[in-house]
Amino acid sequence: MGADGxxxxxxxxxxxxxxxxxxxxxxxGFEVVATADGVASARRRAAVVRPTVVLMDMRxxxxxxxxxxxxVLAVSPASRILVLSASAExxxxxxxxxxxxxxxxxxxxxxxxxxxxxxxxxxxxxxFTPGLAGLVLGEYRRIAREPGAxxxxxxTERETEVLRYVAKGLTAKQIAARxxxxxxxxxxxxxxxxxxxxxxxxxELARYAIEHGLDADE
Length: 218
What we know:
This protein has helices at 15-27, 39-49, 65-75, 90-99, 111-122, 130-145, 157-167, 172-179, 183-211, and strands at residues 7-11, 31-36, 53-57, 59-60, 63-64, 80-85, 103-106. It is α/β, with parallel strands linked by helices. Helix 2 runs parallel beside helix 3. The radius of gyration is 18 Å and the shape is globular.
């Protein structure tokens, strides 16, 4: 394992990029225990190595990062998924968060930013960017307008306030100072929005199943 016990699996369909990320993480003291290029291989390897953190690309050889996130968590539920994505893939990243990813990092991030994001993810802290904050706020507004919205989770006023500041580009420390909160409290609010969005997705899936008769006995 790495110096702090963190093991990592890198999932990306580009070998050069995948190898470079693995090397960068190794130099930062992490142990890369597996790599994969697609949904099926990610599931197989995660079931064996049970990594602490999975770095997940969105474009894979046999599917996408949202599918792979769900498959990895099905066989290694304790793993934490950090999406590594091109900025143009925001909507796909939102689906990965709904599937269980707890963080998002753009591929233009520096080696130091990547290492810090992996450490944060390993500790269960949400890695959150302005673009994703804006998407999450938009998704909650959409859910609220949907029929049967009472069954879906809603954000508290403080959670909404925190997301708005994140969407403006403020860091957790800056938000904490502005709202007279602790840094950890701000991070907890961000984590809560991820969890609620994942719950909201399950509510939507259940509603879809009922409306389309998919819950009926065969």
